Amino acid sequence: MPDLLLELFSEEIPARMQAKAADDLRRMVTDKLVAEGLVYEGAKAFATPRRLALTVHGIPARQPDLKTERRGPKMGAPDAAVQGFLKATGLNSLDEAKIQRDPKGDFYIALIEKPGRDAIDVLAEILPVIIRTFPWPKSMRWGARSGKPGSLSWVRPLHAITATFGPETEEPDVVKFSVDGIETGQTTYGHRFMAPAAINVRRFEDYEAKLKAAKVILDPQARKDIIFADAKELTFAQGFELVEDQVLLDEVSGLVEWPVVMMGSFEPEYLAIPEEVIRATIRNNQKCFVVRDSKTGKLTNKFVLTANIEAADGGKTIVSGNERVIRPRLSDAKFFYETDLKTKLEDRLPKFEQIVFHEKLGTQAARIKRIERLAAEIAPLVGADVAKAKRAAHLAKADLLTEVVGEFPEVQGLMGKYYALAQGEDTSVAAACEEHYKPQGPTDRVPTDPVSVAVALADKLDTLVGFWAIDEKPTGSKDPYALRRAALGVIRLIAENNLRLSLMKVAASALAGLSVKSADAEKLPSDLLAFFADRLKVQLREQGARHDLVDAVFALGGQDDLLMIVRRVEALGKFLESDDGKNLLAGIKRASNILGIEEKKDKRAFDGAPDAALYGLAEEKALAKAIGEVQAEASAAVAREDFAAAMSAMAKLRPPVDAFFEKVRVNDDDPKVRENRLKLLNEIRSATRAVADFSKIQD
Question: Which of 142, 174, 610, 646 has the most CB atoms within 10 Å of its CB?
Fold first, then answer.
């Protein structure tokens, strides 16, 4: 079966756009092929700075023939309807139609046969449309062609289109079409400097091999592997260690077609700057990797760069050029850092009076005061020193106004720690300046120092309560203030530090500190708690737990101790994995279903204690006795927060519940006996609610 080779050769594509562009090209072409009845065997897309390429193999040579039936008018219909039917179906007369009998009458049916087209003709039709409608995040139009302005909108000027199609055993054909005056062909070009001559290609294997010979590594992953391996080898040979950076590696691989790794250096005096600032300077300005001393673990005055050419002088000029750029950048960073050290963090705070956090929530200064007050309230609950928590909250945002953070926003918090230590602050206070932003995602580190935990909780809860109070909640996929991330951060801080605190009380306290008053102030803490419940479900689901168990626990009401909820959910999950748990759940569900039906029928609830005098069967008495014992035992276990023991107590209900449903007819002919048995079923439901609302659990 034939294969397709497509290459779009252009000026340099921004590295950040390449991966998505390659994926978009593969998706758009293969979706169109399938829609046209051309089901392929496999497809793979590639990107380099100057080209997008796609290979699709195993495409049928022709579309399948299509046979469809089209129903027409009834026999005896007006002539106008008949003529319209003949015109629409291409029939010459009704003699070419079939008659289909139907309860509503006899109808004409046209059998329409549409022969499939050659795949190469289909490709010539769909490919130019894809090119013209390609979804670049940013694109441009450029110079005139043949005296007319260019009409194609593309990320950078497009120079050539290679498109071939054919079986492996034959010479492929060119898929002929043109876009904005660019005719398709079999010609591409190698490396811009080392092999710029035109290259004639046939199919993908030939294309990839010829590009490699012309100093172009087509596969982005292959370029990454070369850069990473060569950088590791180069640093190791000199007794150093590469500081790995996957994001930078992805970007650098999109900047070169023929990666050549080299090492440069800078003056040792710049090592006095914090390592993170050195790394940010070199990474952001020159896309270079930094290097550690393998013995001390500290940064060295070396860096690793990736060139796009094998230079005649062995790269000396390239290395020297990078060093000339990096040196003044590091000099600036050193100046910023030393300038920042001259001003204490608290002396920067008055400027926050003029900086608005949110028009409805006041200034940054007002927010810092709220966080400071809330951190002091949370501190005793998490085992933190109140004075240190207040001090840390007071200083935590100050580094936002420093020169270094203004230049490199990614080191905010971290620089606060460095500056706090430099001015002699307590180590816990300094650590909290960095860690109060954490965790910033599901894989980010969770602070464990109590002072950091107190300030981190205060920061996130102030954000959540504030935006809830002004009704700026997340909607759908929109979450401009990262409130979902803040809620997940609170959950992880509590769960991973085994903290006991009432979210409702802390949220109410945070609300009291706001200058803006919510119209639904009374509902806000509980509404916010429901949001935490949703975030907790997401987290547990990602960890492999069942989100319906969270519903079963939250349904009991008054549950705002997240740590206890997590522990209860864990115990409930383990219990339901056992045979006793599964069978008891089935029994409880059966009891709930019967109660629901009968309560709806009688328009009443069957609450209240059953009358023991009406128990006529041993199974009733045994169940009633078991319910009393289990309810007391489970409630006591829950009170001492031993949820495993509570589940073990619940398991004792399984035999009497099974026996009851096997031997006892609930809807007895005697109305009093029936009512009593329904009350007994309600007792089952009430007893199990000591640990969870089993009606919320999915079978």
Answer: 646
Spatial contact of 527 and 520, defined as CB atoms under 8 Å apart = yes
Contacts of range 359-367, beta carbons closer than 8 Å, 24 or more positions apart: 360/470, 360/516, 361/466, 361/467, 361/470, 361/514, 361/515, 361/516, 362/515, 362/516, 364/397, 364/400, 366/515, 367/397, 367/462, 367/466
CB of 262 closer than 8 Å to CB of 213: no
Residue 520 pLDDT more than 70?
no
Q: What value does the mean pLDDT take over residues 546-563?
A: 79
Q: Which one has a higher pLDDT value, 133 or 517? A: 133
Q: How large is the average pLDDT for residues 358-372?
A: 95
Both tokens assigned to 390:
């207040």
Angle at 387 between CA 383 and CA 392, to 5 degrees: 90
Q: DSSP alpha helices (H): ranges in 312-469?
A: 316-341, 345-348, 364-382, 386-395, 403-407, 414-422, 427-435, 450-469
Of the candidates 525, 632, 634, the residue with the CA atom closest to the CA atom of residue 575: 634
d(CA 19, CA 38) in angstroms, rounded, equals: 25
DSSP code for 411:
G
State the pLDDT at residue 521.
67
CA dist., res. 431 & res. 130, Å (int): 53
Q: What is the CB neighbour count within 10 angstroms for residue 109?
A: 14
pTM for this one? 0.80
| Contact (Cβ atoms closer than 8 angstroms) between residue 542 and residue 398 | no
| Vertex 209: Cα angle to 204 and 210 (nearest 5) | 100
**pLDDT band at 592, cuts 50/70/90?**
confident
Give the per-residue pLDDT at 560: 76
574 vs 622: CA distance, rounded Å: 27
Q: What is the SS3 assignment for 545? A: coil
By the 8 A CB rule, do 15 and 254 touch? yes
CA neighbor of 629 nearest in space, from 676, 687, 581, 678: 687
CA distances from 371 to 363, 418, 445, 517, 664 (A): 13, 21, 21, 17, 61
**Alpha helices for 115-188 (secondary structure H):** 119-132
For the chain, how many helices (H) and strands (E)? 25, 18
- What is the torsional sign of CA 365, 371, 377, 382? negative
**Residue closest to 301 by CA, chosen among 315, 290, 312:** 290
Give the model's pLDDT for residue 13.
97
Count of CB atoms situated within 10 Å of the CB of 107: 17
Is the pLDDT reported for residue 80 higher than 70? yes
Which of 1-5, 103-107, 472-476, 674-678 shows the lowest per-residue confidence on average (mean pLDDT)?
Answer: 103-107
The pair of three-digit structure tokens given for residue 160, joined into one six-digit string: 């050539």
pLDDT tens-place string over residues 211-246: 999 999 999 999 999 999 999 999 999 999 999 999
For residue 146, pLDDT over 90 is answered with: no
**Residues belonging to the chain:** 699
